[in-house]
Amino acid sequence: MASLSGFTGSSISSEWAGLSWKQFIPIQKPTISVSKNSSKARSNASSSSVKMAISVEKRLILQKSEEVFNAAKDLMPGGVNSPVRAFKSVGGQPIVFDKVKGSRAWDVDGNEYIDYVGSWGPAIIGHADDKVNAALIETLQKGTSFGAPCVLENTLAEMVIAAVPSIEMVRFVNSGTEACMGCVRLARAFTGREKLVKFEGCYHGHADPFLVKAGSGVATLGLPDSPGVPKAATFPTLTAPYNDFDAVKQLFEANKGDIATVILEPVVGNSGFIAPKREFLDGLRKLTEEHGTLLIFDEVMTGFRIAYGGAQEYFGMKPDLTTLGKIIGGGLPVGAYGGRRDIMEMVAPAGPMYQAGTLSGNPLAMTAGIHTLKRLQEHGTYEYLDKITGELVKGLLEVGRKAGHALCGGHISGMFGFFFTEGPVYSFGDAKKSDTAKFARFHRGMLEEGVYLAPSQYEAGFTSLAHSLEDIQSTISAAEKVFRSI
Ligand SMILES: *Cc1c(COP(=O)(O)O)cnc(C)c1O
User: Which residue has the higher pLDDT, 219 or 353?
Assistant: First the structure.
């Protein structure tokens, strides 16, 4: 989410990574008319005198969404608890959800959407899975929170350790932000160094050291990207463009013996979908080893998403530390960090690096995680995700190009993205060439067709085991129509 997504609650993430807060200028609201006296969610445009800017056949009635969101704006900053949700980067009325199931989401006006956000990743087996729900109800009966050790923590820890190649010990927290924050503190504690290298367009949660404007100069020291972040917090943050190994080498030359950690999204989802170059990943692994620097894979998004063992299994490599979140909570709030035993034993109370959490290891969250992972262990799950997601991206690019648009895109397993530019896109700099105004029109058009995409060009999309081939086909047909109209 957010590189540009970041600004949503969970997301300063996607939207935000690499962008200054000042750049979040809402796009003008597309022409969507709300019919106050229709109780039907959708009605035919032909039945009214509305001149639609986008879709010609259907109109989306968003009356209740509008009412709820207007009330929310008075209650919560921007009407949301995570910035991207407010639709600032695509404009128009945000959709207020009522319920979700399988591949579908329904809004408060009763409109149904095929959902490609999946709660920003966690819903990989489909929303509100029956088995997960049943397990949650069983756990619920024993209480919602213990604040004491419970067996479920062991179970999920064993599953995570067995799955993720580099993880020998794990600590559960409550969000991806917390995981990244704790993990960097640990890397600093272990190495006795302070500097960290992050990449432009990568989002690692909203903790101070990560909110750094990625400067144009590769060797520039970080400056805070949000008011309220002290310069001292980001001074040790160095940034380089994604997929630019030479830039990282230069940072290491200029900061010999000072770099505690390199943290990256091993496949980027927070500036849109960007795959790493093999040489880039291999180069980082070798360079960090040579310099006694810890390599952190932030797999909050990619963990259990692009393969059961995450990006590290997919690419066959071992970082020193790994952060997780999203999927391992199965839709409840969870994060985790883990890695080599000798490093993890520095974490309190085994060691001196302090990090704690009142609700960490919460039995409900552990339960949802356990049963989500169990489903993912079934035969052929990742092959299925790869197949439907590949079809989706291939279809979207085909119909989009046929309609005359410059487009590029890609996917790995159930994670995908596309940009309104020729490409190729290897970095956030490349991603910014995308025609975001066109994306906003596309996004609104797809909503009208009953397809819910992430409300930002700079967010990855997600499929789930509940998405059928028919879902994919009807999404491509909807896109064909919308591409012709924008
Ligand atoms: C979502 C995300 C985070 C932040 O996780 P939250 O649970 O939103 O705090 C961190 N890193 C990556 C790669 C993410 O995608």
Answer: 353
CA distance 293 to 120: 31
- Which atom of ligand 1 has the smallest separation from the CA of 298? 13
pTM, two decimal places: 0.88
Beta-sheet strands, E only, within 121-220: 169-173, 195-199, 212-213
143-376 in CATH: which number? 3.40.640.10
Q: Please check whether residue 311 is in contact with residue 299, taking contact to mean a CB–CB distance below 8 angstroms.
A: yes
Partners of 59 in the β-ladder: 43
Ligand 1 atom showing the smallest separation from residue 10 Cα:
8
Please say if the pLDDT value at position 6 is more than 60: no
> Which one has a higher pLDDT value, 42 or 92?
92
Q: Work out whether strand 58-60 and strand 42-44 pair parallel, antiparallel, or are unpaired.
A: antiparallel
Catalytic residues: 203, 298, 326
Highest CATH level, class, for 5-128+378-485: alpha beta
Q: Which residues line ligand 1 (CB under 6 A)?
A: 1, 10, 13, 175-177, 180, 203-205, 265, 269-270, 298, 300-301, 325, 335
pLDDT digits (tens, 9 = 90+) for 117-159: 999 999 999 999 999 999 999 999 999 999 999 999 999 999 9
Ranges of each domain in the chain: 5-128+378-485, 143-376
